[in-house]
Amino acid sequence: MTVIDVEYEQPACSTRHAWARVPVEPSQSERMHLKEKITRLLKEKNAVMVSHFYVHPDLQDLAEATGGLVSDSLEMARFGRDHVAQTLVVSGVRFMGETAKILSPEKRVLMPDLDATCSLDLGCPITEFSAFCDAHPDRTVVVYANTSAAVKARADWVVTSSCALDIVRALKDAGQKILWAPDKHLGSYIQRETGADMVFWQGACIVHDEFKAFELQALKAEHPDAKVLVHPESPADVVALADAVGSTSGILKAAQSMDAKLFIVATDSGMLHKLRTLNPGKTFIEAPTAGNSATCKSCAQCPWMAMNGLADLARVLETGVNAIDVDAAIIPRARLPIDRMLAFTAALKNGQPVGGLIPHLGAA
Ligand code: SF4
To answer: What is the total count of domains within the chain?
Structure first.
């Protein structure tokens, strides 16, 4: 196991340090043995795997092979809530496990490593965030899913990158002004796209914040036929170079629908596994995080997503350790803005009107 130091920014504070422990890659025979063991334990324990696109390919493939799901955080939440299994094994980072528990408090939610966190969550502590909200009482509070249960409980809406644009647009149409947290790049992208009146918490994702426009331009010049796919947690000058901007699921759709053979991808490198599996005739290369103008703190791989491994997954299934616990007192309030998001996206998907799903400010 390797323990690495991770730098992140907390608004109004200097650079902070966190850590991540990354498991050693198992050998081929260990890998096969662990996969067989996990498959057996999932059946015995009435459990299902839910994995994020950014975790190790083994955990993505195993989730699908055993009837679970590989997806973005919105679909992970929905799938976990609706599945009959009484144990959910969430491979991702802590806020994903917490969201699953908030939506299904009666289920057991296990994670390979409970210390797998996120710079957006770390950089938005509830006390400071509450003070920020108190300073803007006239604004609807919209928070990204990458936040603690306590921050969600202070929000009017929770959004993911796949539905944030639609929800903010609907709030703007309803005449509401917005307080957005925690990702400043995603927030400013949404503001540019919707024209909504927004104030921002100044958090950032340590992976996407590292993509560099100067180097991306140089790579584009080397590959003039390549299309550029960018996650909107990236800086504005990187987003400006994109042929398609979208969440992880949006990037997948764009890669499948665009008539190109070569793509440059600005999101966590874990995403390349799914992109390559679904598009065997196409080539995907990572957008640059290193170069003359870069520091490459993360090198396009989230250190906390990398904490998820087969051995820990087998161990938690076998022993029941690493169960997510969310304070029962805040679950109902934290669930409210998540339920709003799920109802909104379900209506949108079914072509139903969404205006009636926007409550007046202060209705929470
Ligand atoms: S990739 Fe960025 S947003 Fe996603 S969990 Fe890691 S630090 Fe958080």
So the answer is: 3
CA-closest residue to ligand 1 atom 5: 118
299 within domain boundaries = no
Residue 293 domain flag: no
**CATH number of the structural domain spanning residue 139:** 3.40.50.10800
Quote the CA–CA distance of 185 and 176 in Å, as a whole number: 21
pLDDT bracket for residue 137 (50, 70, 90): very high
8 lines ligand 1 (CB under 6 A): no
Query: 169: buried, middle or exposed (CB in 10 Å: 19+, 13-18, 0-12)?
Result: middle
Neighbour count for residue 52 (Cβ, 10 Å)? 27
Could you tell me the residue range of the domain that residue 65 belongs to?
A: 2-118+305-319
Instruction: State the distance from the centre of ligand 1 to the C-alpha of 296, rounded, in angstroms.
Output: 15
Kindly report the protein residue whose alpha carbon is nearest to atom 8 of ligand 1: 118
Ligand 1 mutation target, pool 94, 111, 119, 151, most atoms within 8 A of CB:
119
Query: Is the Cβ atom of 206 under 6 angstroms away from ligand 1?
Result: yes
- How many angstroms is it from 146 CA to the middle of ligand 1? 8
Residue 133 and residue 145 share a domain: yes
Assess whether 108 and 128 both reside in one domain.
no
Q: pTM score > 0.70 for this model?
A: yes
pLDDT digits (tens, 9 = 90+) for 84-122: 999 999 999 999 999 999 999 999 999 999 999 999 999
